[in-house]
């Protein structure tokens, strides 16, 4: 959620491009619910489910990150492999538009250039 809800909009607002590596990530909440057969729940509920207490201030980015790392450590300790899905293939750049073919001039309409010879009087 943080990538979709915060990082991407913030980068757009500041005119920054995100690298492709940000296209792939491990959704810890989804992985946790699949592994432990729990419904998706809050970070505090996930910690409680594993017998852990939240450390720090809720919704503080640094403290939330540390607590998520503790959950990841629990998953790894129990032998669960955490792998992000493969990166999406980069989009092929669009080919530049081909120039339109110029219409061929009609030979009959071409004016002949040349000197006119005048008559002497």
From TrEMBL:
- Its domain of life reads Eukaryota
- What keywords does the record list, in alphabetical order? Exonuclease, Hydrolase, Nuclease
Q: Which stretches are transmembrane?
A: none
GO MF? exonuclease activity; nucleic acid binding
Q: Return the InterPro entries for the record.
A: 3-5_Exoribonuclease, RNaseH-like_sf, RNaseH_sf
Where in the sequence does UniProt note compositional bias of the Basic residues kind? 107-121
Region Disordered: list its residue ranges. 80-121
UniProt name for this protein: 3'-5' exoribonuclease 1 (3'-5' exonuclease ERI1 ) (Eri-1 homolog) (Histone mRNA 3'-end-specific exoribonuclease) (Histone mRNA 3'-exonuclease 1) (Protein 3'hExo) (HEXO)
Originating organism = Cladocopium goreaui
